[in-house]
Design a protein that fits this description.
Largest sheet of chain A: 4 strands, antiparallel
Number of domains of chain A: 2
Largest sheet of chain B: 2 strands, antiparallel
Helix content of chain A: 25-40%
CATH class of the largest domain in chain A: Mainly Beta
Strand content of chain B: 5-15%
Radius of gyration of chain A: 28 Å
Structural class of chain B: mainly alpha
Low-confidence stretches of chain B: none
Number of strands of chain A: 7
CATH superfamily of the largest domain in chain A: Immunoglobulins
Largest interface: A-B, 29 and 29 residues
CATH topology of the largest domain in chain A: Immunoglobulin-like
Strand content of chain A: over 45%
Strand order of the largest sheet of chain A: 4-3-6-7
Number of strands of chain B: 2
CATH architecture of the largest domain in chain A: Sandwich
Low-confidence stretches of chain A: none
Oligomer: heterodimer
Helix content of chain B: 55-70%
Mean pLDDT of chain B: 82
Chain lengths: 175, 157
């Protein structure tokens, strides 16, 4: 007997027909509700993400003392619309690279949650003091270089299910 | 052999897969990204051809045959492949870089950027629902099919 013959004769028992019918209807109901929930939740998340607004304030390079260098500012996140969702586990990492792509230092700012229905602020204080560096020579090389690459890496979880990350690299010339 | 083959689903699946796997991607990608900066056009068409072949095979056999169920398992494996590589109808032609993870890596007005977006939970949910549907097709008594779902049957009654 060939495989095709075997497979064509493999059938359920006639007595199980009623049970199989009920089970298939139950599975169909689960599938329908599953798809409704899935597409409903996707639509909600897309709509709620669309309503978020960002504002960047007082964002500028700073040199509070002769031996420090940094970038300060704050980001205001307006997550206030009634259909908003929580933004959690936010991590903002700023790294400084020299013109020959050597990483000098990085700093990370974390925030546990930006709750829904609220306006939140994230203070970005990327000021580097000499003691932040492993050696003064590193800090000095930062002060001596003519060109820097500043890389921002942002990671967060949206609505507890999506993980979103983006990275921006900006080249700056120092005066 | 004629007893096994369902010509209606064979033809339906062939037309559907050609439309969604080849025709629509061709026009969508040429419209959105004519220079090929964002999408891998060859990868999209390659996956489109896989989609046409597998989905057409999926429609050949009648639903009450166990071989149809085995092909359905193969279809699930193909879906896992599609979700893994991206660049196809099931991931809406997103450039793929992993299972349920799409990413972009490029430059805009001289500023380098990378963007990643993890939607793996959607894929797990869809695969689970498709698997349940496959199971439903297997256990459902064949004579129940279409009798109460088609409008023509209701008109006849």
């Amino acid at each position: 007997m060939s495989l095709a013959d075997t497979l064509s004769k493999a059938k359920f028992k006639e007595e199980s027909k009623g049970f199989r019918h009920k089970l298939s209807v139950l599975i169909l109901i689960i599938i329908v509700f599953g798809y409704i929930f899935l597409f409903g939740y996707l639509t909600y998340i897309s709509a709620s993400a669309y309503g978020i607004r960002f504002e960047v304030e007082d964002f500028e390079d700073s040199q509070p003392t002769n031996t420090s260098i940094g970038i300060d500012g704050k980001v205001i996140i307006k997550n206030t619309h009634w259909y908003s969702a929580d933004i959690t586990d936010i991590k903002i990492k700023m790294s400084i690279y020299t013109d020959d792509d050597v990483k000098i230092k990085s700093k990370t700012i974390t925030k546990k949650i930006i709750p829904r229905l609220k306006k939140s602020e994230i203070d970005l204080d990327f000021t580097f003091e000499p003691e932040d560096f492993d050696s003064f020579a590193d800090f000095d090389s930062l002060n001596q270089t003519d060109e820097l690459e500043i890389k921002f890496e942002v990671v967060f979880t949206y609505a507890y299910v999506y993980t979103i990350n983006f990275e921006i690299a900006i080249d700056t010339e120092l005066e | 052999m004629g007893y096994w083959i369902n010509w209606v689903t064979l033809f339906r699946n062939l037309v559907t897969s050609v439309i969604f796997g080849l025709v629509i991607p061709y026009y969508v990608i040429n419209y959105i990204d004519p220079n090929g900066d964002l999408f891998d056009f060859n990868a999209v068409l390659f996956n489109g051809i896989i989609f046409v072949v597998v989905y057409t095979i999926y429609g050949i056999f009648k639903k009450d045959l166990v071989i149809r169920f085995l092909i359905g398992i193969g279809w699930m494996a193909t879906l896992v492949y599609f979700y893994t590589v991206g660049n196809n109808f099931f991931t809406f032609y997103l450039p793929g870089c992993g299972f349920g993870y799409s990413c972009l890596d490029g430059s805009y007005r001289g500023i380098d950027f990378k963007f990643g977006y993890n939607y793996a939970w959607v894929i797990y949910a869809m695969l689970g629902l498709k698997g349940l549907n496959l199971l439903r097709h297997l256990i459902k008594p064949p004579e129940q099919k279409y009798k109460y779902l088609t409008i023509s049957e209701r008109f006849k009654k």
